[in-house]
Amino acid sequence: MKNYLYAGMLCLSVLACAPTAVAAPPADVKKFLNAAYTCQFLSGEYDDSLAADDKQKMQKDVKKYFHYVRDNKSKLKEKYHNNIKIINKISKYDSLEID
User: Fold this and answer.
1) What is the CA radius of gyration of the chain?
2) CB 98 within 8 A of CB 64
């Protein structure tokens, strides 16, 4: 019986010392961050020397993701204006040049 008690106490002490899980961002923020990251990646990959097919696909992707970011950044900042962690994550992409 003593062994079970010690084992139980050991488990509880390990659980109490374990780091707490970091909450994942809400789905709409996660979608925005993925799109913004993709924008940033694509902007660094575009090159005039690409094959015509690759340019066309990249332009299609750029349009898709850049428009999503442009259309949703201010909405998300307004929606989560009280959550500084989310605002900071979104604000990392303020420097993206989105036409």
Assistant:
1) 22
2) no
Identify whether the C-beta of residue 33 lies closer than 8 Å to the C-beta of residue 89: yes
What does the alpha-carbon distance between residue 24 and residue 5 come to, in Å, rounded to a whole number?
A: 35
**What's the mean pLDDT in 33-47?**
87
Report the alpha-carbon distance of residue 69 to residue 34 in Å, rounded. 10
Whether 45 and 59 have beta carbons less than 8 Å apart is answered as no
Tokens (6 digits) for 65: 């993701």
pTM of the model: 0.69
Tokens 């010690």, residue located: 6
CB distance 29 to 37 below 8 Å: no
**Stated length of the chain:** 99
For residue 64, pLDDT beyond 60: yes
